[in-house]
Amino acid sequence: MEQRQRTWKKNLYENTDYPDNYTDKTFLEELKKNVNITEISPLTAILGAGLVTQELCIIVFFVAVYVYLHSGWIEPETVFVQSSLVAAIGYLTYRIVLTDKNYNEVLITDLRTVLIFVVFGYVLSPVLKTLTDTISTDTIYAMTTFMMIIHLIFFDYGVPSAIVSSSLSMNAAIFGSVCLASRLASPFHAFVLLTNAVECFVLLPILLSKGRGSVIVLAAMITTAVYALWTVSLIMMFLFICVTLFVTVLCPVWFLRWQKHKENIYGPWDEAVVHDVRM
């Protein structure tokens, strides 16, 4: 008498009568698609891409300050006073309006930190100016461009990812600033430029992180960056506008269009997840 074949089950050790790659129609009953997909609105996509544009605007601000100092269009004392005034207003806004902590408790600590930076920065500015003085200008500009690209790639835009490294991003921007400092006329020029680098790449991102997702902030930064480039170079201004349109408008449009074709599948072939069930 012929032995009856056993019913196929999803336990491999019980399927001795079937090939290892055999599955029946019940195998795909648990198939699910796009379980955790999140619908993203056009405004959300634009504001998300705008975070990259904001950081690009910060680089434009810093480079504009360097061009003004290098070309002698503005005195370093004026830049230092104006940037310090803007930094003070931003600090008070951050402490009073955008934080829940009592700013009186940390005011003395922050002032001590600023004093230490100013004193040591001013004392070490001659060393920082001559640090890369023997390197050619073309190499300095190439290194600075490369460092700013690294700054943009590894910057923390608020999205959890393995590539994010705030320390690497900040250090790359500061290193690029040190490279540019050697092209200026005096150690005080270098001190002012490095002070602006700290304000642009350390302090300003902290302030902007509290206002992420604001159309007003994004529009104001783009407008200011366009004006700064207009005073420096019309070619760079048009190039910046093209890059801004590509990042802020075209990339979100592509993302939303391709999002419709997204199809993640989930089923019994996925890795098992152990849930902690407590009685």
UniProtKB/TrEMBL annotation:
It is a multi-pass membrane protein. InterPro entries: Plno_GlcNAc_GPI2. Coiled coil: none annotated. GO terms for molecular function: glycosyltransferase activity. GO terms for biological process: GPI anchor biosynthetic process. It holds the Pfam family GPI2. GO terms for cellular component: glycosylphosphatidylinositol-N-acetylglucosaminyltransferase (GPI-GnT) complex. The keyword Transmembrane helix applies. The keyword Ligase does not apply. The chain crosses the membrane at residues 43-67, 79-98, 110-128, 140-159, 168-185, 191-208, 215-232, 238-256. Its main location: membrane. Pathway: Glycolipid biosynthesis; glycosylphosphatidylinositol-anchor biosynthesis. It is found in: Membrane. Keywords: Glycosyltransferase, GPI-anchor biosynthesis, Membrane, Transferase, Transmembrane, Transmembrane helix. It comes from the Eukaryota. PANTHER family: PHOSPHATIDYLINOSITOL GLYCAN, CLASS C, PHOSPHATIDYLINOSITOL N-ACETYLGLUCOSAMINYLTRANSFERASE SUBUNIT C. Belongs to the PIGC family. This is Phosphatidylinositol N-acetylglucosaminyltransferase subunit C. The gene is PIGC.
